[in-house]
Amino acid sequence: VDFLIVNGAECEPLLAKDKEIMRLYAREIVEGVILASEQTKAKRTVFAIKEKNKDAIAAIKAEIQDTPIEFYPLRDVYPAGDEYELVWYVAGRQIPPGGIPLNVGCVVSNVETFYNIYFASRNIPVTQTLITVHGAVHSPKTFWSPVGMSFGEAIQIAGGATVKDFIMIDGGPMMGKAVTNLNTPLTKTSSGILVLPAEHYLAQRKTRNDRRMKSIGKSACDQCSDCTMLCPRSQLGIPLQPHLAMRALGFSGPQNEILNKWASFCVECNICSLYACPENLDPMDVCRIAKHELKVKDIHWTPEEIKRLATDVRPTKDFRLPPISMLTRKLGLADYTKIKAPFAENDYLPQMVHIPLKQHIGTVTKACVIPGDEVYSGDIIGTIGENELGVPVHASINGKITAVDTAISIQRMV
To answer: Are residues 35 and 83 in the same domain?
Structure first.
């Protein structure tokens, strides 16, 4: 490994958990980074943080001053934290289409991962996650939550919603998915909950159904190609052209499949739909559906086609990433950005948690407990096979197992 890149970008608007974890737990993060650097034998280790996050930068710099770890300042643009973007700007290397950072000698990981590595080296498992709750809540804040606690409880910790009818976005406003069930559990990868009035522009966009979205796109897309011109992956030379996926809506059969292949490398950053398109259409969702249809039919670019279609990074690259200030105005979130979501201690103890057996990529864990078992926070409740790629699942509270299905339910012990 030539580069170990520490991703402290936090490029999604309104989220503050990465900034806060760097500010408050810099020592643990840096020690985790050093451990990872030693294990990967990285020649260079680089911390990438947005220039605007002065407090986080100061905390991290204080911890790395006597180490070989370097610092790289990032612009306040979206998606600064995408691993392809980080590898290009930090290492000057172009990840091949469909590739991963390791293909070009790089490893990229998020700051909370290094925080967890530090504790894993001390045999302390992941039982909680740091989240930001923002938007239409009385007291936006960032706090630690037990894995498996419900969205509804997290919102109450932030003072509750300020409106009666609302939707929740799991994650940031760009890539996060709409959630309507308050009992949805937080997972190890949860980063935040954005609460929005049901009538909000972004709430309406996030809940638009696929049939309506495709119908509108088929009739209204004028093939201006703004979505492709502003696509970050396209600017990096990846053969990705959302406007051709939009064109595919008007065709069936082989022509539809040929055009849909131009969606193959979409990572659903949502710039095309929520920023670039002047008609407020949904190229990202069209690409998402196209990718699924191609997978079902086992249709994909051949290695020869990829080699022929991929290009060098485009000379317009540096000028095509939207500033966060413009993006938040476009999303109708400018007023929310005026309110911070600082870290707050959380002493709330949920009476019940529902911990999913699948929380991320990799092998689905298998439950190793049954209803009636008593467990303590940190106990293993889900395991993986010896040669499988994945991680165990641990209890996040002391309690009794009440149900085992796709999630394990634990009732807190009094």
So the answer is: yes
| Residue 398 belongs to domain spanning | 352-412
Count of structural domains within the chain: 4
Cβ–Cβ < 8 Å for 389, 122 = no
- pLDDT tens profile 203-236: 999 999 998 899 999 999 999 999 999 999 999 9
Model confidence, pTM: 0.94
Same domain, 293 and 370: no
Q: Is 225 helix (H, G, I), strand (E, B) or coil?
A: coil
Residues 194, 140 contacting (CB under 8 angstroms): no
C-alpha–C-alpha distance, residues 198 and 154, integer Å: 19
**Residue 413 corresponds to which tokens in the numbers above?**
């012990």
Verify that 107 and 143 share a domain, yes or no.
Answer: no
Band (128; pLDDT cuts 50, 70, 90): very high
Q: What's the CATH code of the domain at 311?
A: 1.10.1060
Query: Is the pLDDT reported for residue 173 higher than 80?
Result: yes
Distance CA 269, CA 289 (A): 15
Q: Render pLDDT for 368-378 as a digit per residue (tens, 0 to 9).
A: 999 999 999 99
Question: Once rounded to an integer, what is the mean pLDDT over residues 299-325?
Answer: 96
Q: What phi and psi values does residue 81 have, to the nearest 5 degrees?
A: -90, 0
**pLDDT, tens digit, 9 for 90 and up, residues 311-320:** 999 999 999 9
**Domain co-membership, 26 together with 110:** yes
- The token duo for 317 is 């690259």
The amino acid that residue 1 corresponds to is: V
Total number of residues shown for the chain:
414
DSSP state of 76: S
Of 46, 95, 97, 94, give the one whose Cα is nearest residue 74: 46
- What is residue 34's three-state secondary structure? helix
Q: DSSP labels for 89-118? A: III---PPTT--GGGGTEEEEEHHHHHHHH
CA 374 to chain centre: 33
Do 362 and 393 form a contact (C-beta atoms < 8 A)? Answer: no
Q: Give yes or no for residue 105 having a pLDDT over 90.
A: yes
